[in-house]
Structures are given as structure tokens and as C-alpha cells.
Amino acid sequence: MTELPHGWTTRRPTLDDVPAILELVHASDVAAVGEPDYTADDVRDDLTTPHTDLDRDCWLALDDSGKIVGWAFPGNSTGGARDMANVYFWPGDGRSALKPLLALLMDRMRERAAELGHSTYEVRAGAIPGETELIEALTGAGFVFLKQFARMQMSLDGVSPVAPEPPAGVTVRPVRSGDEAELRAFHAVIEESFTDSDHRAMPFEGWQAKINRPGTPFGEWFVAEVDGRVVGALQSSDGGEDSREGWVKGLAVLRTYRKRGVGEALLRRAFATYAGNGRPKAGLGVDLANPTDAASLYFKVGMTPLYRANIYRTEV
């Protein structure tokens, strides 16, 4: 059924809805993985990311009491030929919002493809393996399984705020966030390192606009240098007030400098800094289909999967 129950309605979200949306997402997280894994900043970012229009791309579903029981929104910050379909619903009581919201979002995806100038448009969606209702809705809408991601985490209890020395010839230091040339080198490492994955490339100017916002923890960003050249980069983001988790948003090492301990040195420097800043945990997400087998490094440094998520795809 793709119609809402009698008395239920939809409307567009506003930033004033962030607390209620976060309550919805936390309820979904707890049902799926046993604990909240989203912050208010995450909600704001999803509502304000480039190429997302609150008045055209996003919906809230409200039950007959006016409670927000569903949220649907896209995710394509680069404007490229791949989008993300995201639908949250209140476990149990909100399940009737799932298919109607997904149908609205997929109709909008076809419009977004044309507006962004793409004749073929890939749409992906994620689901925890135990989210059977969501998986059934996705497969019923034409999505097929693609791969898995792992959400990894480790405790920083007992981690020294002083990082181990990096391998000989490698220097790890904080990024100089006020130096545009350095930020361009940092960005270039990310883009070049992920050319052998399905990373969505973003021009420097767009990336710079995303990072130049209040609260970006540049003190937890690091570069690795060899012979004065930036060959590795670690980008952190704030885990939010709820968890204070140190979040590794991106770790990249140029291909010719891999298998030399550069990535591990960057991680250990970040973990030490997180610990020194009072963060209780470190976390990240990893594509288990990554051809560099990045997950092996994360296991090596002591991280374990908190949960795994299936990724599904279709085209419109």
C-alpha cells in the first residue's frame, strides 16, 4: 500500500523539526542496532546538504495525533549521477509511512535526475540486515543488493594521548587549516586515493564550502608527509554532544605509499588526539567491498564492527 492511513498527513520539514526528527531516528536506531547512532548535527547536515531542497525533496509523515512518524530525504551533495534514498519510520507505529514515503521519494528521484542533467541515475539505499520491512519495501520498489558497509568502533579507554612514533621517513602532523595550498593537497590525496573505489568525486571548491563551517574539528585532522610531500590524509568530524565519539570521516593514502604504515600512523595519531580531547570512543564506516581491504587495517588497530549495513541500488 502506497497511501497513508486515514488521518495521517505529510508535510515538508523545517530546521525547527530537528529535535523531533532526531527522536524518530533514535527510535529507529535503537530498534535496528540497539543504540542511537545519529546526532542533531547529522539531521541538520542532511536537511541542508547541497542539492537538497527542503520544499521539494524532503517529507515528514505525521500520524493522526500529529506525531512525526516518518522522514524521507535524498542525498547527492555532488550533483553527480548517484543519489541516496533515505527513509526512516517509527518502529511499529510508523511502519505505515514507509512505502508511501518511499514512493514519494522515488518519484522525486526521477525529477532530480532530469534536473541535474543525467539520463541514467543510480539510486542507493541502506538497511540493517534485520530491518526486514525496509528491505521488503526496497526490493518491492526495484532495489537489488549491492554490498555491505560496516560501522566500526573502539573504546579509547587506556589509549595514551601521545601517539606512537610513525615509521621512519614518515611525518604525521595536524593539517594547517588556514593554508589553502595545504587544504588543496589534502583534498587531492582524498580524491586520488579513492579513484579505485566508488567514491563520489567533489571539486575542491564544493568540498571547501562543506568543511568551512563552525564546529569543524580541524585540530583532529592530520596529514602524513614523506620527503615533504603530503601522501596521506585523515579527516575527522565531531561525533556530536550526545556521544562525543571521535569520528574518522575519511582516511586516504596515495597508492604508491600504501603498505608502509602510513594509514596506521594517521589512525593512531587521531586516536591519541581523540583520547586527549576526552572522547570516549573512535568510530568510522568502511565499505567492505573496498579493493584496498581497508577493513583489515581497522581490525588491526583494535576496531570491531558495531553493526553492518546492506546497500541496495536501482536506476531511474
UniProtKB/TrEMBL annotation:
SUPFAM superfamilies per UniProt: Acyl-CoA N-acyltransferases (Nat)
Family matches, as CDD domains: NAT_SF
Q: Which GO terms describe its molecular function?
A: acyltransferase activity, transferring groups other than amino-acyl groups
Q: Which InterPro entries match?
A: Acyl_CoA_acyltransferase, Bact_Acetyltransf, GNAT_dom
What Pfam families would the database entry show?
A: Acetyltransf_1
Domain of life of the organism in this record? Bacteria
Q: Does the keyword Transferase apply?
A: yes
All copies of domain N-acetyltransferase, residue ranges: 170-316
Ordered alphabetically, the record's keywords are: Acyltransferase, Transferase
**Gene3D superfamilies of this UniProt entry?**
3.40.630.30
Please state what the protein is called.
Answer: Predicted N-acetyltransferase YhbS
Organism (species): Actinoplanes derwentensis
